[in-house]
Amino acid sequence: MLSVKNLSKSFDGNTILREISLDVAAGETTVILGPSGSGKSTLLRCLNLLETPELGQLSIEGDTVDFGTDLTDEQVRTIRQHSAMVFQNFNLFPHLTAQQNVALAPVLNGKKSKAEAKKLAGQLLAKVGLEHKADAYPDNLSGGQQQRVAIARALAVAPDYLLFDEPTSALDPELEAEVIQVLMGLAAEKRSLVVVTHNMAFARRVADRIIFLDGGTVAYNGAPAGFFASDHARIQRFLQIFEMTDYKI
Ligand SMILES: Nc1ncnc2c1ncn2[C@@H]1O[C@H](COP(=O)(O)OP(=O)(O)O)[C@@H](O)[C@H]1O
Ligand SMILES: [Mg+2]
C-alpha cells in the first residue's frame, strides 16, 4: 500500500498540491488524470521525493515519512527504494547502450554483480520486445523503443511501485501503441502502476482506479466507470476535450 495523507506542496509561495490524501493499492493500476498544470507531475515526484512536500505524510509498504521537518538521507533512500520512475522524455543515458542503461542501477545500488545485472538486463529487454537492440545506443532507437528501454530500466531495480509521468506524450500514435502494450502487460501481471497519462483509452480500459486532480486537489478518486459517467462540471469539461479527439470510445 502507498498512502499519502494531507500532503501539501508549494513553489515560490504558490500552493500546487493542497492537503492531498489518497491510497494506492498494491497490484493495481492507478491512473492520474487532470488538466495541464493541475499538479500531476508534482504529485508523482513527491512519491519518490524528487520533490519534498512541506506538510503531510507518505507511507510506502510500511515505511513512513512525515514532512515539515528535515528528512535524513536514510529516510529518503528508504522511501526511494520502493519506486522507479519513467519520464515523458525517456531520459536514457545517451553514452550507454540499451543493455548498459538497464544494468546500471542494480550494480550501483549493490544489489547485483555486473554479470548478474547484464543477464537481468537481457531478460528485461526481452520482456519489452527489445532483445535484438541490447547493443544499440539511444540515438539509434525510435522514441517508442527508447521508452521501452526506460521501462526495462525501471523494472531492473525491482520496485514495488512503477511511476509513469506521461510515458507516451512524446510519441506518435503508432509508437504510443507499442508502449501502451507494454504497460498493459505489466497491468495484467498485477504490478503496482501509477500512471499519469492523457491516453483516455488506457485510463478507461486498464485503470483499476482513477484519480482526477484539479487545482491541486483530488476532484475524483474511484472506479473508471464512475469517472467517465460523472456529471461533475469540472470532469465533464475535461472529458469534452477528449471527445473531440480520436480517443472517443
Ligand atoms: N520546480 C518548479 N518550480 C516552480 N513551479 C513549478 C515547479 N514544478 C511545477 N511547478 C508549477 O506547479 C504547477 C503544477 O505543475 P505540474 O505538477 O507539472 O502539473 P501537471 O503535471 O499536472 O501539468 C504548475 O503551475 C507549474 O508551473
Ligand atoms: Mg506533468
TrEMBL record:
Keywords: Amino-acid transport, ATP-binding, Cell membrane, Membrane, Nucleotide-binding, Transport. InterPro entries: AAA+_ATPase, ABC_ATPase_HisP-typ, ABC_transporter-like_ATP-bd, ABC_transporter-like_CS, MetN_ABC_transporter-like, P-loop_NTPase. One of its GO terms (molecular function) is ATP binding. Signal peptide: none annotated. SMART domains: AAA (SM00382). The keyword Cell membrane applies. It is a peripheral membrane protein. It is found in: Cell membrane. It comes from the Bacteria. Residues 2-240 form the ABC transporter domain. Belongs to the ABC transporter superfamily. PANTHER family: AMINO ACID IMPORT ATP-BINDING PROTEIN, GLUTAMATE_ASPARTATE IMPORT ATP-BINDING PROTEIN GLTL. This is Amino acid ABC transporter ATP-binding protein. It comes from Rothia endophytica. The lineage of its organism: Bacteria, Bacillati, Actinomycetota, Actinomycetes, Micrococcales.
